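Record type: monomer structure entry
Structure origin: computed from sequence
Chain ID: A
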Amino acid sequence: MSAPAKPSPNPLKNRDRMKIPRQHMPEQPAQQRAHRFTEVNLGYSAELARQEALRCLECAKPTCMDHCPVGVKVREFVQLLVAGDYLAAAAKIREDNVLPAITGRVCPQEDHCEGSCLLCKKGESLGIGYLERFVADYEQQHMDKSAIVKAPPTGKKVAIVGSGPSGLTAAGDLVQKGHQVHVFEALHEVGGVLVYGIPEFRLPKQIIREQVDYMRAMGVEFETNVVVGRTVTINELMEEEGYDAVFIGTGAGLPQFMNIPGEHLNGVYSANEFLTRINLMHAYKFPRYDEPMVDFRGKNVAVIGGGNTALDAIRSALRLGAGKAYVIYRRSDAEMPARAEEVKHAKEEGIDFQMLTAPIEFLSDGNGWLNAARCVRMELGEPDASGRRRPVPITGSEFDLPLSVAVMAIGTSANPIIQSTTPGLNTDKRGYIQASETTQRTSRKGVFAGGDIVTGSATVILAMGAGRRAAKSIHEYLTTGEW
């Protein structure tokens, strides 16, 4: 006979739970935050967190868990939160997610766990992301890292290439199995896109450092300033340095441009360069850090694109002093891939959204600097391969928008360094590494890959899901020797 189910710590009947409104996330006032890089969302208090957690219906078949790419046991961690055992709630999340303070801030829960919450049928979903952030932040403030129990060593060595979300997730899962894990990062700070791509006001760098420090306490080793494919190759890691398996999680960091006239002008950036200068090279702390960038104060800045990266870039430009800050997007609000919360925040801060608009040329001031973007208005036609309605230019609708800075946030592609230096590693026609969707195994024995370097640009949580699948597969390979 199975053990009887434990009684719920939630004292409310379901009908009473459904009467509780979703608890609002405290925020900095828009007028203040638009001029500073401190975090916009302030986090739940213990009282708000418990009130929100009381809304959970504790479904017998939790669809929220089914739709989480890393399989967080939502019902169980929320029950522990209601009971007031916040450290146990954090430990429950960590069974499946080694980066809870990060995903609690940047995961698009509305597309996954919260989007499948049964509360959505009659109101707003449970604030799973906000609750995850609360318990993760509590854990960081109160837990003793010296008490972390390390798994017995297996004697197997795994190299993780890239310290972004997929690499960190794979590392965290593998070290808990007792494998020796060494993470190689090309840049000078650990975190990958979490560090260079997401601004301080959305994901503070200290949060990332704390999560990485937790992983160090678990036994993960980190090495920065190592460009695998140049400093050392995959073959050398396996044949000379004795690694039994390698996971490639290098992301997709090669910028894309529109190939329109004037993209060579000074003042036209890729979003990758723009955000890296701000986030990793401390331009957001100017003048204390004298990072070379255009002086934004009082100038017109536009970002081309409608995703989260575009909004991160333009909201950063506003905080650097932009006089006018535009988002230029060729479709309508309904097709924008950015998170609804980020769009809301941007509009509150005064970002000007030029929807159904596309640049067709960047104009010079005569001295090699950007002076304006020539744009055209669009209308939506039939759906394209993405499922979204295809934008079509409206004849005769051209106009010039005065600009000093333009940032291209229209996507990225695969950097070819590892693929070009690893014989036998199969890629697709776009240069992404081919790997199994279920095991993340590549064409090279002992080599696994996941995240954006396999799928193209996606979200943090989807990359983490790939890291988890890879870790499971790597463990099976190291345990059985079967490929």
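Annotation 1: The radius of gyration is 23 Å.
Annotation 2: Residues 157-253+414-480 form a domain with the FAD/NAD(P)-binding domain fold (CATH 3.50.50.60).
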